[in-house]
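Table S7 (text form). Paired inputs.
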Amino acid sequence: MGCGKSSVGRRLASLTGHRFVDTDDQIVQNEGRSIAEIFASDGEEYFREVEKRMVENFVGVCGVILSSGGGLILRQDNRETLKKIGIVAWLDADPDVLFERASRSGKRPLLQTEDPRETFDRLLNSRRDLYTETADFRLDSTNLSHDEAAQRLLDEALRSRHRFDG
């Protein structure tokens, strides 16, 4: 949350000529309502089920830069699905920077709590090991522009691909 997945992903897609897909945007489009509305009316579990089905659609699809919400990795089957789709990058940043970015829009349902920072830290800490387990590599974007982050992701993905192919 707040790492720049969508912005950096769009730039990465531009660099590669691949299609960019943001799973949250796709869910909003398919459901015809915002993620906040989905959470409010049907709950997080329903959203996670929709998210799971969305991501499964990309197994075997080539030429896609997929940006998924940070909670996707909470389910083991989703972590396995991401690995089937392709190289998995963890776009990270300093927690203070992540929180500041995530707080800007006010559209984060999981941060609509009495103490958003405590909630944010708890979510991040509970997910860190899963991100580490799932990602082929991690990129710290704290001091990078979106363009710099996209280029570094591309460079590292190419290195990762060679490790898998070799």
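Next pair, protein 2 of 2.
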Amino acid sequence: MNPLFQLSTRNYDKELELVRKAMQELETTCNVKNGFEIFPPSNMAGWTFFNLQLSSELLSVIETSGMMEGALGFRIGEQVKNFVGHYLESKGSQVRIKQINY
């Protein structure tokens, strides 16, 4: 199963570009093609929500490369969510991230 995360923001256009660029950089670092998918957004109460899904290949590289060292969480799904959230934040994104499926 590929992990699925819900991202939320009040500035979708700006954040979409930041997330896309950050994930493309992560793909390059991990030497993975088609490592993520961003799904169409939905709006509610001034927030825009969109889903980000990682490929199993990208996830495997992240888990085995030591990139998640220091990511907090009791379970691997929570650690991946925290890693992705901190990675996006380090690239300038201010989205909120929520784990939907792992």
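The mean pLDDT is 89.
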